[in-house]
Specification:
This protein is α/β, with parallel strands linked by helices. The protein is 46% helix and 13% strand. The longest helix is centred in the C-terminal third of the chain and has 21 residues, at 183-203.
Length: 255
């Protein structure tokens, strides 16, 4: 996310990163507007209240991570969470009465500016919601939710979704090896196919269902494969169970 923000020339901002383990952040030394801090106390020592505090930690770590954040907050500070499962009410109860909390769910393609993020603004005023959208737009597409209860399903579909696609490439590679391809070739073919098909979905005016029909000849090889994948016990019910499991776990994390 920080890579995307620093690449956005319209975002005139100073960034304070609180991270105890900083070895992976050495690259930030090339940017004058990025400061690294090991603790909240270090970051607060400058005496300036933050405009937006981005809560980029795992939900299981959130309670401990936000315990001292009041030191960074002023009357106009907003908090933007990217943690799965944790509601704005849960966060607000721990950040203090009147805390302004927004909630989002990005996904890992954000690392190359190809992410999609769902954003719930809660009661945030327009200028705060606009800043949150600007921050998240730097890493890809943003959709705004009117109903926070949809966030658990969003987490299951797009937040966790890249892992499903990575697994597809992994399984296709293994299957290619099983039917006789050298491992390196199987990997190259599977990964390029998954990547290219995703790009085609993004660029085409046709829905994925039509793109599937376009590549399927009656009685051909693709039809033979789809007969297996689209069987009653095939991909559709399996993926639905997977997404339900992810949704349910998101609900549990916020419990």
């Amino acid at each position: 996310m920080l890579h995307g923000w620093l690449a956005d020339s319209s975002l005139d901002a100073e960034f304070a990163i609180i991270e105890p383990a900083q070895d992976h952040l050495a690259w930030t030394s090339a940017h004058d507007n990025v400061r690294l801090h090991a603790t909240v106390a270090d970051a607060a020592a400058g005496g300036r209240a933050a405009t937006m505090v981005v809560l980029a930690v795992k939900p299981q770590m959130m309670e401990e991570a936000i315990a001292d954040l009041g030191a960074l907050a002023g009357p106009d500070t907003a908090f933007l969470s990217i943690a799965a499962g944790l509601s704005t009410a849960w966060l607000g109860a721990r950040l203090g009465e009147g805390a302004l909390v927004l909630r989002s769910m990005p996904n890992t393609p954000a690392a190359i500016g190809k992410g999609i993020t769902a954003l719930y603004n809660g009661d945030a005023p327009d200028h705060v919601a606009a800043l949150a959208s600007q921050l998240l737009s730097a890493i890809g597409e943003v959709v705004v939710l009117d109903d926070e209860s949809q966030m658990d399903a969003v987490t299951a579909v797009s937040g966790s979704g890249p892992a499903y696609v990575f697994l597809l490439a992994e399984v296709m590679t293994a299957a290619g090896i099983e039917v006789g391809l050298p491992p390196a070739l199987a990997k190259q073919l599977a990964e390029a196919t998954v990547s290219g098909a995703g790009a085609l979905v993004a660029e085409s005016d046709d829905p994925p269902s039509q793109l599937r029909v376009n590549v399927t000849s009656k009685g051909g090889t693709t039809a033979a494969a789809l007969a297996v994948l689209m069987a009653e016990d095939g991909m559709a019910p399996l993926l639905e169970r997977a997404i339900r499991a992810a949704r349910d776990r998101s609900v549990e994390l916020g419990g």
